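Example 3.2
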Amino acid sequence: MTAEDDSYAALGLLGDPVRRRLYRLVAAAPEEMGRDAVAEAAGISRSLAAFHLEKLVEAGLLAVSFRRLTGRTGPGAGRPAKLYRRADGEFAVSVPPRSYDAAGRLLAETVERAGLDLELQAAARAAGAAGAGTGADLEEELRARGYAPFRDGEVLRLRNCPFHALAQEFPGLVCGMNLALLDGLAGEEWTAAMEACAGGCCVALSKTKDR
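Structure, written as tokens:
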């Protein structure tokens, strides 16, 4: 199978509504989830949850680890629980095939070579401010843009980086653009700052102190 075939197969699994719901639950969770927690959150049996979770693992959409949830060690501590988290890999399909990722890399390379970082950040901040001007709830807006936000006390952390592939190749350029974009989107009630979430976005948002 080609990489494109793998993407079709993986994304095809999400056509099942139960499987899609389980994937969204695990992908949005700030921490790994066990089968019991997934089943309870989805309102289905543990055996059904386990079946669909394993299918998502086989497709490369979820990854697993093993850990004792009680924190106990040694004899009598019990078997480690199987925990699920969103896999690091990406799957993208377009019909007919398109190469937006190649265009993105070329544009990023050109901007970086030309030293247009500040111009890019200004454009990103303006684009974010335009989104904030719609009056949409910030968390819902972030969720719609693929950031997978979650609350960590008074801080909004972002479980996913929508620009992950480009950020890996051009970290300074893309992370600076992302910070400016979220700074504009945050408006006056929130403050965006570089504060990476493990496995997620490099930016976190906090309530502005003087409001």
